[in-house]
Design brief:
There is one protein chain. The protein is 36% helix and 17% strand. The chain is α/β, with parallel strands linked by helices. The chain has one domain: Aldolase class I (TIM Barrel). α7 links the parallel β6 and β7. It is globular. The structure holds 2-phosphoglycolic acid.
């Protein structure tokens, strides 16, 4: 099975940066994995060429109307975007998004044929007080009755942008916990300080279906190395 290798540019880049990034990445990449790049909203119309598919980084819970600053799912779909990240810990924190909001976004995306990537993951405080599994269960609660294939990204908040990565065993335990809530196929990506040097272990030795890469994805050569490490 090909893995899903996702770049999350967050609030970085420009037209010229992204154009150059695509050129450099496509020159390097020879993997048969599915590669997606989550671009900032103004650049969603850019084409990745080659094998690269485009993802949005968020979407509104509203379909249209007087919601200044928000971006609707039909606007995303109009740009031929294949995926949309929802529930990223940075959006949960800075935009005050709740589990209910994230489920509403999920439903709108499915209706509009854009594939959601639902981010979940615990803070350091939650992990240190041994509440990780309960916390993850709560984040999954609204998704329990979904019957179709679903994609989650397990991103421990304390691993994002810090250079810290949980042990293989810790990742596997959470992945198993997530899968135990569902009877259907669940795709699970791991995210949090994925780099060229740790991608091969994560992708080849753990029961995950891909990775979500922030900081290291901004370097096209390094991201191509990650994409080719399995
Ligand atoms: P990071 O970010 O790879 O820079 O840790 C991952 C993410 O936030 O998706």
């Amino acid at each position: 099975m090909p893995k899903l290798i996702a770049a999350n540019f967050k609030m970085n880049g420009s037209f010229s940066f992204i154009e150059e990034w695509f050129n450099a990445f496509n020159k390097e990449d020879a993997s048969s994995n599915e590669v997606i790049v989550a671009l900032p909203a103004p650049y969603l119309g850019m084409s990745g060429n080659g094998n690269v598919k485009i993802s949005a980084q968020n979407v509104s819970t509203k379909e249209s109307g007087a919601y200044t600053s928000q971006i609707s799912v039909s606007m995303i779909a109009d740009n031929n975007v294949s995926y949309c990240i929802i529930g990223h810990s940075e959006a949960r924190e800075y935009l005050n998004e709740s589990n209910e909001d994230i489920k509403a976004k999920y439903d709108l995306l499915i209706e509009n044929k854009v594939k959601p990537i639902v981010c979940i993951g615990e803070s350091l405080e939650t992990r240190e007080s041994n509440e990780t599994f309960d916390f993850i269960t709560k984040q999954l609660e609204h998704f329990k009755n979904i019957e179709d294939e679903i994609t989650f990204a397990y991103e421990p908040i304390w691993a994002i942008g810090t250079g810290l990565v949980p042990s293989d065993d810790d990742i596997e335990q959470v992945v198993k916990h997530i899968r135990s809530h569902f009877s259907q196929t669940v795709k699970i990506l791991y995210g949090g300080s994925v780099k060229g040097e740790n991608a091969s272990n994560l992708l080849n030795n753990l029961d995950i279906d891909g990775v979500l890469v922030g900081g290291a994805s901004l370097n096209p050569q390094e991201f191509a190395k990650i994409a080719q490490s399995c």
